[in-house]
């Protein structure tokens, strides 16, 4: 299995992988998985587990080079990508780690030691997506506990594993028709300044036991995530709208694992966006909007829209940096909301339980902010990452507060 993986280390990057690599030439799209523990972990055992994890996934111990095509290349030697800090809170550490460069290994472990341990497991987004970061975090704990891993090897790029109807000429014909569909989208609200993102801020809140709210949403024809999407869209409109009816474009990252028949434990970049446009006015009912979000996403996934967007979003095969935006684009997604779902409880690290789990990414050049929602045990964590250049922290906190108030009210009355 290791030999097969090592051979694939030399392969060229796929379309989405190239896109993230090229975005990192002008900014950052890195991912960090945050695990908060109820006690302190042993540093020596952590380093050993990290070394083993890299050994199991040679691509994590590789560099990405362009000669002239963009491909993985194994590193002949490297320092262990590990750091310890003993002060600060994990949000402030996260903001720095989100923009860490990855010239060598595609992984970095930052161990924040205070009353307990917080692990910030960072990755180059060209190698790992959000769900893959959670898989690797789970594997790191298993190795810390001295267990032996049985892994699915990393294989070819996701678009090369699409169903036949989404590959070759059939796929491109569908993609061209999809472009025409996207071209009909109306202009959307401009949010934040039109400047490139150089740094990402992070904030968030948690809701306890949202099962009743999810049950209520299902009874009304949607689900918790669709309701949260509606609340966020409504909050954005209330802050940035002009009082008349306006359009907001919603980007919902979707996992392609099922569509491309990807093993549940394989790591890689297996996600795509789903774009939809919604009209919002002062009288828009959140429950009606939630049903629209739910139905549109369900229908779009069934019709393969995320796979088509993957074909359209391919980065160039040559290492050309994307242009820095200087004016608003009417069709860009202005609101991005990722759903990590309900995360299965992680193993305790030799008796020390994991109390919180987050997996967030740095803001890309274009988008002002992105929400991430994940449920772990009896709590739901809602994180907001924002471009410090496009929005100031007070603006981000005002948006988060509006969402928190609405969700808390709905939760209390469910």
Q: Give the SSE order as H and E letters.
A: HHEHEEEHEEHHEHHEEEEHHEEEEH
Strand line-up in the sheet with most strands:
7-15-14-12-8-11
Q: Which percent bin holds the helix content?
A: 25-40%
- What's the total helix number? 11
- Gap from first CA to last CA: 50 Å
Question: What does this molecule look like?
Answer:
With 414 residues, this protein is an alpha+beta fold. The chain has two domains: 2-144, Chloramphenicol Acetyltransferase (2-Layer Sandwich), CATH 3.30.559; 161-412, 2-Layer Sandwich (Chloramphenicol Acetyltransferase), CATH 3.30.559.30. Helix content is 34%, strand content 23%. The protein contains eleven helices and 15 strands. The chain has helices at residues 2-8, 15-23, 43-56, 90-97, 130-144, 168-183, 211-219, 224-240, 286-302, 305-312, 393-412, and strands spanning 31-37, 62-66, 70-74, 82-85, 107-113, 117-123, 200-208, 246-251, 254-255, 271-272, 275-280, 335-343, 354-361, 369-376, 379-387. The strands form four sheets. The protein has a six-stranded mixed beta sheet with strand order 7-15-14-12-8-11, with helices on both faces. Strands 4-5-6-1-13 form a five-stranded mixed beta sheet, sandwiched between helices. Strands 2-3 form a two-stranded antiparallel ribbon. A hairpin with a 3-residue loop joins strand 2 and strand 3. Helix 7 packs across helix 8 and helix 8 packs across helix 11. The longest helix has 20 residues, at 393-412. The termini are far apart.
């Amino acid at each position: 299995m290791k030999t097969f993986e090592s051979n694939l280390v030399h392969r060229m990057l796929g379309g989405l992988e190239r896109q993230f690599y090229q975005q990192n030439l002008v900014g950052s799209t890195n991912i960090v998985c945050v695990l908060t523990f109820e006690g302190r972990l042993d540093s020596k055992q952590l380093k050993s587990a990290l070394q083993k994890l890299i050994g199991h996934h040679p691509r994590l111990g590789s560099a990405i080079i362009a000669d002239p095509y963009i491909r993985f290349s194994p590193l002949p030697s490297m320092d262990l990508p590990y750091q310890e800090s003993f002060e600060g809170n994990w949000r402030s550490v996260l903001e720095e780690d989100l923009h860490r460069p990855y010239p060598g290994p595609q992984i970095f472990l930052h161990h924040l030691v205070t009353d307990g341990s917080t692990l910030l497991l960072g990755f180059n987004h060209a190698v790992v997506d959000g769900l893959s970061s959670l898989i690797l975090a789970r594997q790191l704990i298993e190795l810390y506990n001295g267990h032996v891993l049985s892994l699915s090897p990393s294989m070819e790029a996701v678009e090369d594993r699409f169903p036949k109807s989404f590959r070759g000429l059939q796929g491109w014909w569908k993609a061209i028709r999809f472009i025409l569909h996207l071209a009909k989208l109306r202009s959307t609200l401009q949010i934040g300044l039109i400047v490139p993102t150089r740094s990402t801020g992070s904030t968030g809140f948690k809701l306890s036991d949202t099962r009743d709210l999810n049950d209520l949403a299902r009874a009304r024809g949607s689900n918790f995530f669709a309701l949260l999407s509606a609340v966020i869209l409504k909050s954005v409109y209330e802050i940035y709208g002009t009082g008349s009816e306006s359009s907001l474009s919603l980007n919902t990252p979707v996992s392609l694992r099922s569509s491309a028949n990807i093993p549940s434990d394989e790591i890689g970049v297996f996600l795509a966006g789903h774009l939809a446009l919604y009209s919002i006015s002062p009288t828009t009912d959140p429950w009606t909007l939630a049903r629209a979000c739910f139905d549109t996403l369900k229908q779009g996934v069934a019709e393969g829209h995320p796979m088509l967007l993957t074909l359209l979003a391919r980065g160039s095969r040559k290492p050309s940096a994307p242009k820095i935006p200087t004016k608003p684009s009417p069709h860009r997604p202005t609101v991005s909301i990722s759903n990590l779902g309900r995360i299965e409880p992680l193993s305790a690290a030799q008796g020390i339980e994991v109390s919180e789990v987050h997996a967030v990414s740095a803001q890309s050049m274009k988008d002002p902010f992105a929400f991430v929602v994940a449920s772990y045990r009896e709590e739901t964590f809602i994180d907001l990452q924002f471009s410090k250049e496009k929005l100031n922290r007070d603006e981000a906190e005002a948006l988060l507060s509006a969402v928190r108030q609405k969700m808390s009210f709905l939760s209390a009355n469910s």
